[in-house]
Write a structure and sequence with these properties.
Length: about 250
């Protein structure tokens, strides 16, 4: 017995986008209500909704979503056999794994410890400007971002998809920029003082904005790549077949 089903691609994409956006805004709301304003007294539960922490529910979703972006790009690679697609897929899967394993933070810490014992004081002072991982991984991330932008601008058929990809990269870039500011000693205290806000407020919600931008950027990438895959695979069908013998 064969079971066929079809998907309305436009409705699916729209529903998925609204779901992801609602989920991401929901994380922000949960952070504000349950964590920042302390509606829940238990600190362990508050950490679950704290977007400023790496062990929150949002952080897990961010890693899973980024891996899914990479898997969708692998589907495009399977269809096109373009090596650039394979490189982009590997990059997104790495980002998802990095979110879970904190690779960039751990490597950055190792480099900082090495610099203090082996490198001149001038080099160590540069690394103290912000988080060390920014200087270690920054050139690679910038290079990949420029490559992805150039490749997608040339490869994607619809102008709307090109601008979606650009917006996704802009979200990633802004998130990295906010993270750089976060790593600058006293940056949030200075910003808070200039705006008449507390350092707690500016530091916490600076991190919330950063994490939201990462989530939203990944969502835009997921929508972009899904739409492109559906465009190049308009007749793709899924069939479930029961091969068991009939009694």
């Amino acid at each position: 017995m064969d079971l066929f089903f079809s998907i309305d691609s436009k409705r699916f994409i729209k529903t998925l986008f609204l779901f992801l956006l609602g989920l991401e805004l929901g994380f922000v709301l949960l952070d504000i209500v349950f964590n920042y304003y302390g509606l829940i007294p238990n600190s362990s539960i508050r950490r679950l909704f704290n977007m400023a922490r790496e062990d929150s529910l949002q952080a897990w979703v961010a890693g899973v979503q980024t891996v899914f972006v990479g898997l969708v790009v692998w589907l495009i690679f399977a269809k096109t056999r373009g090596r650039a697609w394979a490189a982009i897929a590997a990059f997104f899967i790495y980002l998802g794994l990095d979110d879970g394993a904190k690779i960039h933070e751990r490597v950055g810490t190792a480099v900082k410890e090495f610099s203090k014992s082996r490198l001149p004081a001038s080099s160590d002072a540069i690394l103290e400007t912000s988080y060390t991982w920014q200087f270690v991984f920054g050139p690679f991330l910038i290079s990949m971002g420029l490559f992805i932008l150039w490749f997608l601008w040339r490869e994607l058929r619809e102008p709307s998809l090109r601008w979606l990809a650009f917006a996704a990269l802009a979200c990633y870039g802004l998130a990295v920029g906010i993270d750089f500011i976060e790593g600058m000693p006293g940056a949030y205290a200075t910003i808070g003082e200039s705006l008449g806000l507390s350092t707690k407020f500016t530091s916490h919600f600076g991190r919330v904005i950063e994490e939201f931008l990462e989530l939203f950027g990944s969502s835009l990438f997921l929508i972009t790549f899904l739409k492109h895959f559906m465009q190049i695979s308009p007749r793709t069908s899924v069939v479930f077949r029961d091969e068991s013998p009939t009694l």
